[in-house]
Amino acid sequence: MRNGYFGIIRSIALFFMVALAFNVLGGVILVLFYGINVQSGSPSVIILANSLAQILMMLGLPIIIARSSHQDFFATFRLEGMSETRLPVHLIGIPIIILAQLAGQGFASLWMMGLSYFPDLYSALQSFQKTMDDLMSGLTTAHSPIEMTILLFGVAIVPAFCEESFFRGFIQTNIERSGKGRSRPYASLIITSILFAALHMSPLEFPGLLAIGLALGWLAYRTCDLRVSMLAHAFNNGAIVIAAYLIKDEKTIDSLTGTNPMPLGDTLALLGVSLPILFGLLYVFQKMTEPIQARGNADRVIEQYNLLSSESGADF
Asked: Is the pTM of this model over 0.90?
């Protein structure tokens, strides 16, 4: 550890440990319910099992690791800026994540066009992606108000708390604050976003997931208030669940939960509209968050450890 935080290699290793524990626990819970015939399980039960595994492994386990490493809870989970973050800052995160989602779809479409030049690889990835899309479609499509409530809890609320705490909180903060001479916010943002996209195991949607991860990471970094990215994350996921429930059209549901390449003209039009608006909102967000002082705490922690190190001769 450096400055009391885990560096890049250890943070990535912790990511794989938590991701493995999450998947294993979720599988164990389902096997306890259904035995080996898990595929026949109720989508609601599967969502609740996944939620329990997320709460325990992506929220509980990082908290235990941070506390056992004597890390400051509010610093590690990006809550130091709560008193400085005003309501408009929270709200602007919603259109930012919507536009990041749209731009991400455009980038994913270009990514699929590029992969299509490698037919064997593209065919294998398409087959895997279709399996993931079919699973996601079944798990995010509600058929009653009760199911929709369960889905909103398991697809929007729980991931917003758990994934944001784990990625934008624990992982991003540890990498950022483990810099040697100064903090490394951009390296932590990029690495965390790549890990976030990888966790979802959607190879054809990777650029889109990366765009969403970068947007959420930037919201958390600029505010030092994890509630901002949590709200955006919850809105993004919840809107998909509600839209799929209200529209009840199979093609529309597939477009919301599936991976559908677009024609080049439509892709460029989508990017041409979404990117300028997204950059404009990010500029406004930049100005709104400029006064937040908590963002400088990362560098202040490193300066303090460097001072203590030079005075004691110890290697922190």
From this structure: yes
